[in-house]
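Open question from group meeting: does this chain pack into something compact, or does most of it stay loose? Before anyone orders reagents, we agreed to write out a predicted structure and look at it together. Recording both the input and the output here so the notebook holds the full record.
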Amino acid sequence: MNVKSQTSMPLFEALCEYHRKNVIPFDVPGHKHGRGIPQLVEFLGETTLQVDVNSMKSLDSIGNPIGVIKQAQNLAAKAFGARECFFMVNGTTSAVQAMIMSVCKPGEKIILPRNAHKSAINGLVLSGAIPVYIQPGVDERLGIANGVKLEDVKKAIRENPDAKALFLINPTYYGMTSNIKEIVNEAHSNSIAVLVDEAHGAHLHFHEQLPVSAMEAGADMSAVSMHKTGGSLTQSSLLLVKNRLVDNKFVRIVIKLTLTTSASYLLMSSLDVARRNLAVEGKEIMDRVLKISRNARKEINDIEGLYAFGGELVNGDDVFSFDETKLGICVSEIGLTGFEMYDILRDEYNIQMEMADAYNVLAIISIGDTEGAVQKLVEALSEISKKYRRENISTAKPILKNPEVVVSPRDAFYSCQKTVRLERAIGQISGEAVMAYPPGIPIFAMGERITSDMVEYIKFLKSQNASITGTEDPGADYIKVLGM
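Structure tokens returned:
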């Protein structure tokens, strides 16, 4: 990669030039540089609203980019080691779904771990693909899923040689990765395309002490949440394409199925700027981020009863490597659930964590963090460990085993359904997905057999005031199942 060439920001620079010219707008959006919505101008500032504009010749068009958007996408492709890059403005959800729809037709198989994000499950509904689930590794102490084992991938491929795609997560929410290089080689030797959910890995490509990125490993496509760890605005992401097992022209067609014709230039220009910063200064940026995260992990592990897990979990298989910027903290030994710790930090210390589960809380350490901010987290954890320590923890074992898939997600989605109380759903086939968000990994998804363990875990989540989504009933007291 030519770092010098990466200093330019063609889309962002074009937007700045538009702003400098003070164009008189008779196009949409209707607020006309913010004049029609003064409350937002006062809150967000004049410049933000003045550059919230629609496509035009000088700014190119996301539907058929031939100018500055195309230039910006090409620079991003080079920065990440891809053959082609598409800017996505509907989050990584749309990128994940586009990957699946680009490779799998209705009735074709895709191999994937069951701890995939709901966007992948919904991608199965949209594509009509048939899931072949791999059981991810499980850390029983932490109550979390790891990556997938190479041997389990080989077994799934042997048993399903007609599979069209293999879907991986790199890294997991908590930072674990699989042996992605060897898995890619195994899949490609069987003419199976490799799709990677890299929602939490935008930064991986830019430091040698981080796990290998999907493009470095030779994956065919990856969906990258630049807004999560790369510094762009929320909802902006990249879809990267590399290998010849994927038709990039068809990918472009699939993206257009759901792509807005009014893409936000605020989002797209933020991708351009974030790409420039990672490509030009990524090594220095990630040096600082890793230093902050390592220091915090060490200090937290000096607090009695808390465990900030990290590279010691690496086993060369389902935890092939570990992303140290993910600061996961197990709190069960002080008698709290992760959900309780999450609420205490937010309500009493004004600290917002990324997510919680039964045993852990998670902080994402990224390019915008400071040593001072992280120190406040460490101090808060130290106080909480003394103030709230108790002997017994009221928890429930998370559902980490692959469920029974009775009906394909698409068939379940379009089947006749009825609504039953949660307790009466045991043994029936789900017509919807249920999950805590974040992380957005379904406890059960459409077409899967509902078990008593699943129901008990949902009740536990409700008792912890966790955010439960996916159900038609906002409280998840009622569940839609197949049947009349």
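Observations to bring back to the group:
The chain has a mean pLDDT of 95.
Residues 93 and 119 are 5 Å apart (CA to CA).
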